[in-house]
């Protein structure tokens, strides 16, 4: 009997959620209230605020003179647990910093978003501060970002 | 004959549209229970209406999904199963009166596809046939999980069939007829100064509860969804895809509709709203509102729908409240609780009836 | 100073036996106690200018540089007291006052002793807040070398190398005090045949290798001990490879550099520039498939072609680049099939007093031991190893080559062979030393080592002669004993 009573109570809880949410959401839907009641974030139109320290896509920074901050030291590639950073270094003939990356690829399809690369970088050349979570592609290869894509904010 | 076909088309269309919207209700209700919004993206001509067109989108999707038939299946059974499932769930709906009989030019029309005098027996027998779809689906899939699902479904449905039937015996004792229309008429009587209708739920509260529980078990939906166990067990429709899976899926909801319709008919006074008689409303406080027969039928149909949706709402509430039974618990509930209780109900009802007589 | 008498000293409480006159730093190293050093190098005369190697000797008031102190009977030495550690910290701090924070762009990072010692002893932030001394960077010292004066710690190893070892003396120290730097004397470039060794001996990244510059970080390299094939001395080398597709995504380069391996009896600490920079043939221009008249064919088709020549007179020209094992195996095979055998090899070249010898092949001696002579014949068919230019004209020519060459169309059959870095074996150098080289890489394409190609020949000619390298090694040692005993 106790069980039966508990079962009824359970029904009560779900019914309460249902009715309260229905009421709040209906008011919201017709524009009478700003409280949605439900927790759903309707993603493409609504977005949750990203936190300042969230780690999303990488960005390569530039120096004041326009040169990439990166000196192709491979620290990030060394630290990367997913081994998804590919760098090819070259001589930078005109700059006092002798070395620069000719190619800098990050395979975001493999990246674990751990942020070790950011921690490892001695030049503050790489950050994960592009607050854009969308990374869907139809081809895996499109997820391999090169310098051009990585420097875009 | 022509009329039967017309009626069949109209009524089954109504039934299927209702079913589609039951699926929407299910999605929306579960969403709200869980503090979500639920599907609201389906859009027709830029109108979203918070998901009002979602069922059609779902149906369309079902149609266009790849219908893959695994090479190892037992084809005849495999192909027949979903159709049987759907047919045996849908046909009984045809026997349920959606409004009172209508006489036009001296001819009587029943507002149901099959205006049978033994509607109740017909429904019960068709209901128990529905299990064939499930069993054949499980068996024809040639898949162990499918078969286990099918067998479980059989055990469960057969057990609860008994409780279901027995709970209705009490109703039959109170309303001694097998004709559903008659049963509805007999519920349209009032006591306590004409205020309280003599609905099944008032005369037979225990039977009502038993019927509801047994009916849900027949439905094979949470908390009695052991044959399918969508989230982890996977049942008899394991090997089905595309529209074949869709048929099982729709059959499920048709059964919900059927259960709600039966419950309405047996326990909630059927299509009659309170105080509506052959010639219109006669309120217990003395007023009356006389209406033409056609208007009365319309009101009755609307009433039936309203009651139906309330029951459906309740069924879905139950579905989204409880977790699943374990199989032995399920059997215990059926054989050790529901059946003794319904027998008890029969004895008590019979006793009382005898005393009154 | 060999041949001296044995004496006993005590280092860090351990009794160490060594020869009289040995430098303390070397005695300790031989006993397994490493004393940090910048300027001392075993192969150079000690200079004692960096003061990193200071040790305490009982009875002396002040610490002394162990690289300048010969051992004396009964010396009691401590190498790692707190005072010494403090001292090394100060040495490092002084060096680092004017050292650029170049590690990210410095090729030495990862094998830089300055980095290592910093982690061992210093680990403190810089206290010197003045501007760092600016000095020339990116100075090209020759076709292989680039110098960075800011990174230089003025240990003078490079100056001493060019003085003590090559005797060419291109470098000197210019300016004074904090402004000093190493510079070329007027009109000179470092273009001697051993210039690459400067990169190895420079303890920091002041001298780096233009060939290796920025190609790969050193910690991604796998190191395999091997033997240099470019002359009969057989200098001991290390092959530094990276075959990791991820880190080496942009090129098919597998070998990144060659470094010397110390072997007092053969090459000391050095190798010549030819040995150091001629590794490109391992990755470039390789023959990847069997070829017939310039067209690519399969190994099966190659086998069929081989069967066609059965019955002809055959002479096989083994090469002085094959290992001992391969030579003896092929000789057996030739004997079984009654082929004639002779030797082909690279022509002689320059020699000098340091390492390079005239014979530019790694295994002429091995061939000599087996009695394979350099002779030409005019048989119907010639099977030529490694050196297409030795093939007799106008005959059926079958070649076993590693790298592509101009007229490959004229060859009936060319089989791709593995280069030395892709197989294991031994060579006998001109001193008669048998030295082992190890497999650093997998053969490129469908190439096989010459032993397996021999097995393939045996199969095609229908005889049973399995290629078992270790068995052949034992066989060769028997021959070697006969030869060296006689
Ligand atoms: S976030 Fe982590 S996994 Fe991704 S590139 Fe950086 S280090 Fe690699
Ligand atoms: S760690 Fe920084 S500077 Fe070094 S390669 Fe990566 S991004 Fe460039
Ligand atoms: S020489 Fe050593 S400490 Fe100096 S920049 Fe190069 S790696 Fe760093
Ligand atoms: S260049 Fe290297 S070897 Fe020469 S003095 Fe400077 S640090 Fe020493
Ligand atoms: S190593 Fe002894 S002073 Fe430099």
Estimate the global geometry of chain C from the Cα principal axes: elongated
* Annotation, overall tally of beta strands of chain A: 5
Number of domains of chain A: 2
**What is the CA–CA distance across the termini of chain A?**
64 Å
Small-molecule binders here are: iron/sulfur cluster, FE2/S2 (inorganic) cluster
Over all CA atoms, what is the radius of gyration of chain C? 27 Å
Number of domains of chain C: 4
What value does the average pLDDT of chain A take?
A: 90
Beta-strand percentage of chain C? 15-25%
Beta strand count of chain C? 22
Distance between the termini of chain C: 33 Å
CATH class bucket of the largest domain in chain C:
Alpha Beta
Can you list the strand order of the major beta sheet of chain A? 2-3-5
Helix content of chain C: 10-25%
Based on the coordinates given, report the CATH architecture of the largest domain in chain A. 2-Layer Sandwich
Q: And the CATH topology of the largest domain in chain A? A: Alpha-Beta Plaits
Q: Helicity range of the residues of chain A? A: 25-40%
- Largest sheet features of chain C: 5 strands, mixed
Low-confidence stretches of chain C: none
Key descriptive features of the protein:
heterotrimer, A: 153 residues, alpha+beta, Alpha-Beta Plaits, 3-stranded antiparallel β-sheet, two-stranded antiparallel ribbon, 4 helices, 5 strands, 14% strand, elongated, B: 357 residues, mainly alpha, binds iron/sulfur cluster, binds FE2/S2 (inorganic) cluster
